[in-house]
């Protein structure tokens, strides 16, 4: 394990930053090498399979959301090793530079494993769930193996963060239907590319995204880290779903305050 590979800067070009700002997402090559990822793959896979609340329920007996993935949040609190990956300064600096903010805090992390035969992830937008006062949030999607197209890589609606589409529709068959139709009607381009090992994608909180089914025999093992502007304030007006995330992920922050709960450490500042 190499701490320096997790923490040294990954130089972004001006073109990559401009592309992210225009498209609302970017897939970056060679963010990590196989040796760097291996211990976190083992640890986070162990935690995810142990904590999987559906391990005794066959895929066919689950609803569509729970056929799509095993979702384990706050992995960093379960393991000091996993915490090293979530707290990677390399990732956090990329997030800050893409968001064009001085520093970033952790919102939360989560493992998202799509089992062999696991279903597709419905089209949705993330930030509807988050009680944040600005749009400066971004998710790093970090696969532990290559993700060919038939394993369900994350795909994105190009520049879709600029559209107000299904922003109050929870991830469901309904959000999938509404967004799929809007993507067609507004000629939003869906970018669905395979991931090589070491690729990491970043998408804004308001970027439309989905993932296909895992039609392979191997699990699609992915860790995600969600960052926000270090100066992010808690929303004053919240929906009921945002209230749930407030209590889970920034419980000591009051509406209107900067979110400096102990659960929201600054992961990068210059
Ligand atoms: O991994 C997936 O299938 C979905 C991931 C996702 O929606 C996200 O990380 O925002």
Q: Can you put this structure into words, describing what you see?
A:
This protein is an alpha+beta fold and 270 residues long. It has a single domain, classed as q2cbj1_9rhob like domain (Jelly Rolls), CATH 2.60.120. Helices cover 29% and strands 20% of the residues. The protein has eight helices and eleven strands. It has helices at 3-7, 14-23, 34-51, 64-68, 80-86, 89-99, 173-185, 240-249; strands at residues 25-28, 70-73, 104-113, 121-124, 137-143, 154-157, 190-191, 200-204, 209-211, 222-229, 266-268. The strands form two sheets. Strands 1, 2, 3, 5, 8, 10 and 11 form a seven-stranded antiparallel beta sheet that branches. Strands 4-9-6-7 form a four-stranded antiparallel beta sheet. The longest helix has 18 residues, at 34-51. The mean pLDDT is 96.
Summed over residues and divided by their number, the pLDDT gives a mean of 96
Number of strands: 11
Note the main sheet.
Answer: 7 strands, antiparallel
In this entry the ligands are:
2-oxoglutaric acid
Total DSSP helices: 8
Helix/sheet category = alpha+beta
CATH-level-4 superfamily name: q2cbj1_9rhob like domain
Q: What is the CATH topology classification name? A: Jelly Rolls
Q: Determine the fraction of residues in helical runs and give it as a percent range.
A: 25-40%
What is the CATH level 1 assignment?
Mainly Beta
Unreliable runs = none
In the CATH hierarchy, the architecture is Sandwich
């Amino acid at each position: 394990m190499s701490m320096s590979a997790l923490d040294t800067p990954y130089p972004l070009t001006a073109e990559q930053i401009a592309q992210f700002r225009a498209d609302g997402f970017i897939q970056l090559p060679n963010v990590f090498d196989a040796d760097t990822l291996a211990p976190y793959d083992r640890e986070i896979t162990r935690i995810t399979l142990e904590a999987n609340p559906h391990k005794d329920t066959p895929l066919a007996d689950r609803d569509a959301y729970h056929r799509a993935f095993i979702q384990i949040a706050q992995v960093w609190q379960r393991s000091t090793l996993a915490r090293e990956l979530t707290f990677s300064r390399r990732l956090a600096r990329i997030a800050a530079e893409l968001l064009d903010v001085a520093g970033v805090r952790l919102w939360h992390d989560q493992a998202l494993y799509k089992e062999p035969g696991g279903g597709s992830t419905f089209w949705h937008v993330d930030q509807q769930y988050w009680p944040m006062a600005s749009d400066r949030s971004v998710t790093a999607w970090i696969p532990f193996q290559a993700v060919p197209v038939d394993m369900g890589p994350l795909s994105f609606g190009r520049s879709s963060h600029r559209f107000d589409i299904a922003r109050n529709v929870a991830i469901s068959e309904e959000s999938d239907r509404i967004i799929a139709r809007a993507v067609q009607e507004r000629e939003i381009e869906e970018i669905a590319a395979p991931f090589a090992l070491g690729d990491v994608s970043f998408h804004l909180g308001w970027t439309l995204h989905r993932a296909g089914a895992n039609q392979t025999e191997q699990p699609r093992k992915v860790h995600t880290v969600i960052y926000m502007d270090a100066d992010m304030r808690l929303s004053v007006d919240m929906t009921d779903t945002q209230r749930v995330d407030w209590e889970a992920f920034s419980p000591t922050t009051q509406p209107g305050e900067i979110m400096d709960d102990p659960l929201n450490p600054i992961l990068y500042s210059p």
